[in-house]
Amino acid sequence: MKEDHECLGVVGSRVVRVDGLDKVLGRQQYAFDLSQPGMLHAKIFRSPYPHAKVRKIDTSKAEAMPGVKAVITFNDVPKNKYNPWLDCPHWVEPRDREVLTGHPRYVGDGIAAVAAIDENTATKALDLIRVEFEKLSAVYDVEEAVKEGAPLLHRKAENNIVGVNQSWVKGDVSEGFEEADVVVSGTYETQDIQHVPMERYGTLATYDPFSKKMTVYSTTQNAFPLMSRISHVLEFDFPIRVIAFPLGGAFGGKHELFQHDAAACLLSIKTGKPVRCFLTREESFTINKRYGAKIDLKLGAKRDGTFVACEGKLIANAGAYAINTLANMAIPFDMMLSLYRFENYKFEAIGVYTNGIPNTPFRGFGNPQGKFALEQLVDELAEELGIDRPEITIKNMIRAGDIIPWTAKKCSTTGLIECIEIGRERIGWSRRRDLSTSKGVTKRGIGMACMAHVTSCALLSEGWNESSASIIKLNSDGTVTLVTGASDNGQGIFTTLSQVVAEEFGLPMEKVIYSQKYTDTETQPWDWGNFGSRSMYMVGTSTKLACQDAKNKLLPFASVKLNSDPSALHLEFKDGNVYDKANSHNCVSFAELVHFANETSQQPGQILGFYNFVPTENPMVYAAQFVEVEVNTDTGEIRIPKFVAVHDVGKAINPTIVEGQIEGGIIQGLGQTLMEELKIDKDTGKYMSTDFLNYHVPRSTDIPLELKVIYVETLDPHGPYGAKSVGEAPMVPTLAAVANAVYNAIGVRIYELPITPERILKALDKI
Amino acid sequence: MFELDEYVKANSIDEVISIMKENKGAAKIVSGGTLIHELAGRGMLDNVKVLIDLQRLGLNYVKEEDDLIRIGAMTTHSKIHEHYKDEPRYGALAEAANLIPQIRNAATIGGCVCPGIPWLELPVALLSYDSKLVVQGTEGERLINLNEFYLDYLYTTLQPMEFLTEIRIPKPVDGTISKHISHRITTVGVPIVSVAVTVVKDAKNMCTDARIAIGSAGRVVMRAEKAEERLKGKVLEPKQLFDDVVEAVLSKIKPINDMLATETYRKHICKILVQKVLEELE
Amino acid sequence: MKITLNVNDEIHKIDIRPQDNLADVLREELNLKGTKRGCDYGGCGACTVVVDGKSVYGCATFAASAEGKKIITIEGLSKNGELHPLQRAFLDNGAYQCGFCTPGMIMTLYGSLNGRKDTSENQIKDAIRGNICRCTGYVKIIEAVLDYSKGGSRR
Domain residues for B19? Predict the structure, then answer.
């Protein structure tokens, strides 16, 4: 059941997506579908060893193979190390990646690349590349990697440490624990998982030797940053244009300047032809991952439930390259402090290199791992104290007006209490005690978890801040064109932005033209990309304010048409007309007004609106998820009869889209909780789960029997129409909510993910 | 890399055999194609140069005769499932054929009997029926007991120049009940254990004959003969204890540790499945 | 080898390699890009097409074996500018996000439901369990099909 909320008009209504027809007709174009005349196909030659140095490489046989047009190796590419995620002067993340490497650090690391007339030829050519490797010892566990004498992955990283962050300190935790009446602690371990977007990773690079210009069609979430990185890292002195078609999913995995992006670009220059380099599903499983974490957490509270001290240490298995490990490993503790107040705290996060798949952002950006630990520990504490679980959260939660440590700003809105109250009622929280005493093979339980998460990357990192810009064009035919650099991973941002425009100008959706069906660095204003749950807040705000700018410019023309004094005139845009707010009978049609302004007035020229939004706030979002589980204590299987998720979204610009994000995020969360895992063979360093037979993602038959998604609108003052984020939040509390429900059902707590049937049976001493 | 010289749709049994002879092991039968693609994608069919498609041989049928069921090798899982889904005597067949839609619409009974892959399910069901295989070869037609067909992982008694055309099942007598059950880690995927049981009950619900077949629990699908003996003579009623039957099954199977499940878990699940199936036979 | 394929009621004479699969042939030879490739061999369902009325994995079907059969792809579902009711139900219920799995999902349902109404939620889940969706969590897809089953669109 969906709650009814006040409709503004277009904003707040279940508008059918502007790209909906393309999707259901199979007409949506993806980078995967692109093809150009004369196009070559490229494949990457990847290291079969987890850690090695290339002593000799001979590509002559591959180059001589009929159909092969070019081969490049790590010897032929720019040597400077770079950071694949972002590239700006103050960026603190390690620059440790190479375009192609002679020192592969994980099985799959790219050493060379081949371009040929078709994929088969390129694949066969890889077998003709002769490499003499000096094998080095490899390390896969973080504990082993930091020991003296462990094989070193990067010269600058002593003991394979990417970085240590000890910045979270308040008060004195030892004193705090002394004062505490109850102290609980635990060690929690989460696994490596892959994003598994349905569209794999790839690029089509087209260098035109005549105009000396390159256009790159990439499955990227960050078209603009990719453009600048291609330019800097590959040392190109000609214009680069990046076009990113709407993605077939990303979930944070498609940020980087990948080796296949770089190889496609370089091969295109070398051959003078378009070069397509798309990864197989097997390659896509091993290109990047969410880091597995080991979290030690200790929590002390007074008898009345007040949190007096919290101490924690997180070790992130960064894999072979850092990408943005430092930011990624900091989020868990930042978000703990955004959810609860602690009188004293001390946290430490450490990122460690290992010879495995490099970690990268993934929906939630470290927060799911952090909440898996925190929300289970809080659960334990509540039980120790004999305090009702939801009450302990409400007692300690960050309230509106509290300062959030990492932003140093006040929490603007929180709907957490409402989320908890609605959720506990809908799940039937009061059934919990009876449920968990059920006899028989099937044990039942209910659990809950809460979360706080960000809205955009504002204030997140020293060295760069957020910005987004929008351009509005008012057209003489009464339509409005919106131009932004927003990026679509599949969540429908072009639609919600169009809704904002339609709302602002009182027009139906058909009158709003979203200028292009893809992100284009050449014709659109800079946008950082689609990640960090930023798009609606950032581009939605710049769009709303660009509309305002256009309206301001329209005012003098309206005053002419409405025969009013411009200094006293306030306009209302509704139903395709423009009204004098003071006198609703005085109006002119929007189309007529714009036509006048643009063409026939004394000051003709198309009305353009522009706004560049630089945020000063990062409004937090909150949620509570409640899960009922059934555990078969014979087989260890878990079924979920009921799942209730209540999310504070600020304002649901499009309820269908908002619900879709929550539903999808929860199911993805169930994937991490119950079944997904990238498994490495420690003898060879190879990953064993590289197809859908061995890597399980949730299917239609795995979802909860009943999934209730409810959103709460707190109407945040900082977001467009009050909107905050919703993209990442749904996956964040799911892991802990299920783990808590399982504990309630079987009386044994599971500290590791995924919670597989075997883990359950081992916990019950059945096997 | 999987690359063919030829994809041939054979028009007769003789043509199939002559192509096989001509290509000396580089020719392989293709029926539904689903498994071939899995194997080819994993680099296991790089030596295959010719595929012989049997779709023109009219082998897509389910025929019931007086004492025999004859299923053509090209019959899809879908057809078998639809045909038998409401018939308790053929429960194991129907349930084992109920794969995910896109697979069951294409995958054939012949294509899953022949490879000798122990986690495929229809062979487990067939093994619980005294099934026989009709194969054609250079020496003509011969009949193979399915119970003697699987020698080892991917290794059967099918000779290089032979191919399967039909599976024959003795028509189940009155009082036959048959069930198949398998266990997966998630709802879709390779089963980690599968069990098929076909029994004959008399008027007093006593088991007079039994076949118990297990899949994914060793290098081959197998019968648990000792368990079958123990089941015979038991009355199939709610109070019945099957511990000795279960124990006999467990002593026969040799499950492996792999990425999906450990040997311990497989044994544990096998115990539960066998118990469950036996209880459901009442 | 030369084959003739009947795709969306049109006859195409094409030249393929003997090992080519149907999904790749539809995409590359016939330029019907609606059918997608999400994995390497028969695991995700993005390539599902309907052959002789049954939904199959296009990537696990030899194009040569599909000769002489009636093949329908997502492009063949709508007629004369009208969406097929399944497509209409997906559109109206927001049963898609990135859309990459959508053609395969719709074709699976087209092949499984065969116009049949009154399907239960369990039957729908069973029908699409061979199709992976990473975005929607399947919830709105199931709602769309229930909508379609009742003979109309909710909106």
Answer: 6-56
What is the per-residue pLDDT across C63-97, written as a single tens digit (0 to 9) for each? 999 999 999 999 999 999 999 999 999 999 999 99
Q: Pick from B4, B7, B41: which is nearest to C41 by CB?
A: B41
Mean of the pLDDT values across residues A542-552? Answer: 98
Same domain, A301 and A268: no
HSE toward the beta carbon, residue A83, CA cutoff 13 A: 19
Segments of A142-224 assigned E as strands: 161-170, 182-189, 202-208, 213-218
Task: Give 3-state DSSP helix, strand, coil % of chain A, rounded to 5.
Answer: 30, 25, 45
* CA quadruple C107, C111, C113, C115: dihedral, nearest 10: 90
pLDDT, tens digit, for every residue of A414-434? 999 999 999 999 999 999 988
Q: Are residues B51 and B78 located together in one domain of the fold?
A: no
Task: Return residues 308-337 of A near B (CB < 8 Å).
Answer: none
Residue A91's pLDDT is 66
Q: What are phi and psi of B217, to 5 degrees?
A: -130, 30
The phi and psi torsions of C76 (rounded to 5 degrees) equal -95, 5
Answer yes or no: is pLDDT of A95 > 90. yes
Q: Which domain holds residue A44?
A: 34-136+198-250+254-280
Classify residue A151: in a domain, yes or no: no
How many structural domains are present in chain B? 3
Chains that touch A (3 or more CB pairs under 8 A): B, C
Using an 8 Å CB-CB cutoff, list chain A residues near C137: 663-668, 698, 703, 707
- Provide, as residue numbers in chain B, all residues whose Cβ is less than 8 Å from the Cβ of A698: 186
Cβ-Cβ contacts under 8 Å for A77 (sequence gap 6 or more): A98, A99, A100, A234, A262, A266
Per residue in A245-254, pLDDT (tens digit) is 999 999 999 9
The domain segmentation of chain C, as residue ranges, is 2-76, 85-149
Residue A463 is predicted with a pLDDT of: 67
Q: What angle in degrees, to the nearest 10, is found between the helix axes of A535-561 and A493-505? A: 30
Residues with Cβ within 8 Å of residue A347, at least 6 apart in sequence: A166, A168, A169, A310, A311, A312, A313, A314, A333, A336
User: Cα(A366)–Cα(A368) distance, rounded to whole angstroms?
Assistant: 6
Residue at B1 is within a domain:
no
Interface size between A and B, measured as CB pairs under 8 A: 44
Nearest to C60 by CA among C82, C42, C86: C42
Q: What is the mean pLDDT of residues C101-124?
A: 90
Structural fold of domain C85-149: DNA polymerase; domain 1 (1.10.150)
Q: How confident is the model at residue B266 (pLDDT cuts 50, 70, 90)?
A: very high
What is the value of ipTM here, to two decimals?
0.97
Q: What confidence score (pLDDT) does residue A7 get?
A: 47
CA distance A696 to C43: 10
A606 and A622 inside one domain: no
